[in-house]
Amino acid sequence: MIFDKKAELNVLINLAASDRKVADRESKLIQIIAKANGISKEEVDTMLNNPQPIGNISSLTNDEKFEHLYHLIQLMKMDGQVFRSEIVFCEQIADKLGFKKAVVGEISQHVYSDPSITADRDMVKQKAIKYLKA
């Protein structure tokens, strides 16, 4: 499978649904990310109603892996509550992306739930890259 924006969005949808309910703020962030990537609201609604299993994400570049992880953690924090199931899901995805699971705790302190508050992404990226498995 070629990794694409819809596949990335599907992972975010799986995270949003990992606590059994997609919160309004999570749904809004998913819609914002989708719109920025040319995915229609109708397509997102369909994806939200029927999340697909997560495919092969091993072929991503390190930059793509970081971006994916960053959005994943941002979404986890979006509803103002972080559930253990969401942390575990993020750790599982981080592991699939080739990171050590501890990356989630390390970079989540630098990622904000409000997309208008931006962290120093280069600094966060450098921290994350240190957690890539050899």
Automatic annotation (TrEMBL):
SUPFAM superfamilies given in the database record: TerB-like
Highest taxon in the source lineage: Bacteria
InterPro entries in UniProt: TerB-like
Protein name: TerB family tellurite resistance protein
Organism: Dawidia soli
